[in-house]
Design goal:
Elements: H1 18-27, E1 32-38, H2 50-56, E2 61-65, H3 85-93, E3 96-101, H4 127-136, E4 140-143, H5 153-167, E5 172-176, H6 194-202, E6 207-211, H7 221-233, E7 237-242, H8 251-264, E8 268-271, H9 282-303
Length: 308
């Protein structure tokens, strides 16, 4: 069994395989933090990437949202070679890095065609984009959707099946939705069901994503606990996600959500990217981390040098 991620430093990840990462997460017993970041917006600290900032506040996994593999942009990064974007980000953060790809179902319109959330070709959940992400050094692909982009569970299954056939033994595949993502028939408790979980796992998902309790109307701790237990029974790990801009709420709310997620039995705790657009409020990342693993492990993650 790989060293638990809770105790890992940057050099531990150098030779990690997909199996090692999954084992490392599992061994941490629900004390892994994944922070989502947007790279195309101005960083909160202007000349320091949001990825570096969330790593400094306690993130174990960095999840890139709105990252286009054909036009890779991370504001605050100094690289001049696009193909090296992810590897440079790893050098700066010493973290496992994942990214979102969005499975777009043909014929479903998006609310976001004129906004910054509009889907570009390099963000779509295609085999071509997944291969490009893997070659750039991405460790995990999450098939999910941004608000209003019209991402259905049916489309997630189709993309998962195709990508898993090509890359299933090389890269971690996660799937699920943090909110309805523009499909009103898949809102509240219909965002994800046991039937969806079974289809995702059969299609090749290693990790199943659920909305965190208290983040979506009708999503309770008991409901997500039942789904987490079911996913575990199928051999999958789980992520509970804050994808409803509550990453910009007060710390008391964050700690309440964190403890509810802990009670569901989840393996990874996700906190979203739009406290202000770009990343969660830094104090909320730390508050979440302390709530689920205390100051010792939080400060260990913060203090450990990337040169270790």
């Amino acid at each position: 069994m790989a060293k638990r991620m809770l105790d890992c430093v940057a050099s531990d990840f150098a030779n990690f395989t997909k199996t090692d990462y999954l084992s490392s997460i599992f061994g941490s017993e629900g004390r892994v933090i994944a922070c989502e970041c947007i790279g195309i917006t101005m960083p909160m600290l202007v000349d320091v990437t949001n990825a570096e900032f969330v790593a400094s506040m306690g993130a174990d996994i960095i999840l890139l949202n709105m990252f286009d593999v054909t036009k890779p942009v991370i504001q605050g990064l100094t690289t001049t070679e696009p193909s090296e974007t992810i590897r440079e980000l790893k050098q700066l953060t010493g973290r496992m890095i994942g990214m979102n790809l969005e499975p777009v179902e043909e014929g479903i319109s998006s609310e976001n065609d004129t906004t910054m959330w509009a889907i570009s070709k390099g963000r779509m959940a295609t085999v071509e984009n997944a291969k490009a992400a893997y070659e750039m050094g991405i460790n995990m692909i999450l098939l999910t959707g941004n608000p209003g982009n019209g991402i259905s569970n049916k489309a997630i299954v189709a993309s998962l099946t195709a990508i898993s056939q090509e890359l299933g033994d090389k890269i971690i595949l996660a799937a699920g939705k943090m909110h309805a993502a523009g499909i009103l028939s898949e809102s509240a408790q219909n965002i994800i069901t046991k039937e969806d979980i079974k289809e995702f796992v059969d299609a090749g998902a290693d990790i199943i994503l659920f909305p965190a309790p208290g983040t979506v109307p009708g999503i309770t701790m008991d409901y997500i606990r039942e789904l987490v237990s079911y996913a575990h029974s199928l051999g999958a790990l789980t992520i509970t996600a804050i994808g409803t801009s509550q990453e910009g709420a007060d710390t008391a709310t964050i700690k309440q959500i964190a403890l509810m997620c802990k009670m569901t039995g989840t393996d990874i705790h996700h906190i979203g990217d739009t406290g202000y657009p770009g990343m969660a409020l830094p104090e909320n990342i730390m508050a979440y981390s302390i709530a689920i693993r205390g100051v010792r492990h939080t400060y260990h993650r913060i203090a450990a040098s990337i040169n270790r």
